[in-house]
Design brief:
Elements lengths: L1 H7 L7 H18 L2 E4 L2 E4 L15 E3 L2 E2 H9 L9 H8 L3 E4 L5 E3 L2 E6 L4 E5 L8 E5 H8 L11 E4 L8 E2 L4 E3 L2 E3 L21
Antiparallel strand pairs: 1-2, 3-13, 4-12, 5-6, 5-12, 7-10, 8-9, 10-11
Helix pairs in contact: 1-2
Protein name: PAZ domain-containing protein
InterPro entries: PAZ_dom, PAZ_dom_sf
Pfam families: PAZ
């Protein structure tokens, strides 16, 4: 206790470092009980009023979980996904951690497709065919007809890419949700590299 008392007064003692660690543990436990979100040495109240617009790339930001499309609409303050500025959206989404539905896998966004979902093609390996049997399908067709997932508005919107530049993996916008995250832009998540359910020729 004497070491802690000295530490609070800014005086170093024999057990100074241990006292600091004890104080850190106490403060973190108290913050966690209060429902705070802990990010390294920072504490954030888990309150939607504190969620920051990710357009400010110089500060820490907190992203509330929910559909990616809702996140973009709120971020750009537009009425619907067809009013989005996709050049701006591409910058906003870069490296954002997302979750896919219904597989619940987590990835990081690496970019957008060149064409809308109903036109963006990829090479699909044919199940039950020869080892090298493939077919060209659109991302929209794959999700609707091969995976029986109804897409209400993604057909005319860009796909979200979670793959690599030379090996893209596409998902329609509406099957993705953001994950709660507080981070500095340069330290945004390191996403998983396994790709099992997106439109990637390597996995099908």
């Amino acid at each position: 206790m004497q070491a802690i008392s000295n530490a609070l007064r800014g005086q170093e003692s024999e057990n100074f470092q241990e006292a600091i660690r004890v104080l850190d543990i106490i403060l973190r436990q108290h913050a966690a009980k209060q429902g705070c979100l802990l990010v390294r040495q920072s504490y954030f109240h888990n309150d939607p009023k504190n969620f920051a617009d990710v357009g400010d790339v110089s500060t820490t930001m907190i992203i509330t979980p929910g559909p990616v499309v809702d996140f973009l609409i709120a971020n750009q303050n537009v009425r619907d996904p067809f009013s989005l500025d996709w050049a701006k959206a591409k910058r906003t989404l870069k490296n954002l951690r997302i979750k896919t539905s219904p597989s619940n896998q987590e990835f990081k966004i690496t970019g957008l497709s060149e064409f809308p979902c109903k036109e963006q093609m990829f090479t699909l390996k044919v199940k039950g065919g020869a080892d090298d049997a493939t077919e060209e399908v659109t991302v929209y067709d794959y999700f609707v007809n091969h995976r029986n997932i109804q897409l209400r508005y993604s057909a005319d919107l860009p796909c979200i890419n979670v793959g690599k530049p030379k090996r893209p993996t596409f998902f329609p916008l509406e099957v993705l949700s953001t994950l709660q995250r507080a981070s500095k832009p340069q330290e945004r998540m390191r996403g998983l590299t396994d790709v099992d359910y997106g439109c990637s020729a390597e996995e099908f």
